[in-house]
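User: Fold this, then the next.

Assistant: Folding the first:
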Amino acid sequence: MGAGADGDATLRALAEHRPSSVEQLDGISGIGAKKRDAYGEAVLGVIAEAA
């Protein structure tokens, strides 16, 4: 994820949208293909654990 305000916006969007698939990460601002491919599964795991 990005740093500073951009990172905060990404985290807020993840919390609001709670994506459950790697494909759903495509709609999150601040997560492009490179970050999705590198971190997508880990991010989804954190979101699932927080449910």
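Now the next one, as you asked:
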Amino acid sequence: MSRRSARVATWLRARVATWLRARAYAGVTVVPSPDPLRLAVPKAYVVPAEG
């Protein structure tokens, strides 16, 4: 993962922690997605909570 991608992943992980504490989301994860230029780009998958 490139340095920029690593920073973005760190930022996303911090947001994930905040989202889960807010209990507005049932599940959140950050995964690397292949990218030909940067090797990997972090993506977040979010599942909203019911209600």
